[in-house]
Amino acid sequence: MKDQSVIHDLLVIGGGINGTGIAADAAGRGLNVLLCEMNDLASSTSSNSSKLIHGGLRYLEYYEFRLVREGLAEREILLKNAPHIIWPLRFRLPHRSHLRPSWMIRIGLFMYDNLAKRATLKGSKGIKFDKNSPVVDTITKGFEYSDAWVDDARMVVLNAIAAREKGANIMTRTRCSDAKRVGDIWEVTLHDNITGQKQVVKTKALVNAAGPWVTSIFDEALKTPSPKKIRLIKGSHIIVPRIHNETQAYILQNEDKRIVFVIPYEDDFSLIGTTDIEHIGDPATACISKEETDYLISVVNGHFKHQISSSDVVATYSGVRPLLDDESDSPAAVTRDYTFEVDAPQGKAPLLSVFGGKITTYRKLSEAAVNGIINHFPDAGKCMTAHTALPGGNFDNQHNLQTSLQRQYSWLPRKIINRYVRSYGTLSHKICGGIKSLEGMGEYFGAGLYQREVEYLIEQEWAVDLEDIIWRRSKLSLHLTSIEKSELERFIEIFNSGIKVKSTIELQQRKA
User: Fold this and answer.
1) Which parts form a coiled-coil structure per UniProt (predicted)?
2) Pairing of strands 269-273, 259-265
3) Across-strand partners of 296?
4) CATH (residue range 2-45+154-229+336-387)
5) Residue 508: what pLDDT?
């Protein structure tokens, strides 16, 4: 175990959307930030969402007006700052009068349209379904409104890149095993999950943004009771071949008052979820149950002409959301709001803990969190995240960027360029820059994935293993064959071995 003499301003525990958002905000204000994540970035809740940036239409029923208003306002900011990974999506709501009367839905949509300013999105309207509609013939009316789609895991990675660009140190596969106050400094023990090495780092302030593990940090590292209780709510999703060819997503009502989204996904698929059920135990063990699969299939088959079965499911995922325990009877009714607890005794190093939240309001949460401890750093600047594009998002629209990249890299297939635009934006130049032909991209692994992109993800985006690359940095697992995945995994292992050898040589040279 080695003791480092550097004293950081802020150490953030947790590499999900809240942790990386806080790191990016704080680093942007000039703080010296260190972030540790015990697994990969976005390896839990933040990569297992419904992939939506939305105010939460259904939250209006639970009178969460402030939360909805804040979400709608953030929706506009994020659409502007991350046009590569976030884009508008229209939703269709088939009307079933025995569940909610049409007047109630109209009022809800009117509020949804007007609770916050809409700069880019179209308002809601009533629609009719005819014989050519994908919904069953018994459903003849509905409504349509706007929200937005997001690549959730990439938003986490881009926030980590933004933090790094401002000087933050991002340490993945690194667990916080102990944290103790020594006067006005925190001494934090970090454990490298790959090498097994430990080190003690010092920081003036500590942020617990561990998501579903927020209370575990109190139990295991801080060794003190958590000031708040959370409920772990599991949301599961299934992915099936495309149910319909329309560009719109669908939001389906159900008798139990839960709603299910059917979202166009990765061109060829439909993403269906979520379930909202209580989860007991380790969040890492969360997986879809047969009952959840059957539930989602039943809701879909009650609305669409195209019927699906469990044999159509090509992939599933489950995420556990750490929601504030507001003693609601139904998991679906548990608040999606967030709160902070600041523990800052006189003369002692401050601790800020994050409870609750949702992906749409991460930027606002991050700003509020840093504001909660900024008085300990009088030289810090102001928050700039509302007016700063996420890395790769400095362009006007996807079509123009696609045209520009096609002109500059005419040898690159259009389908790959389109994926690059929706994953990397202008960061695409870091992959293609200096390359003159498709052969220059190196080994081909299938589904438009070349060696150059894999190397970029490992060297610049903290990817370590196969799942990091084909599920979180991309969704290419849906398109790669098992043989292609095996070849890619072999390459990753060889490439990582080369990095380790190079690092060892460089370390020995420095010592010499």
Assistant:
1) none
2) antiparallel
3) none
4) 3.50.50.60
5) 62
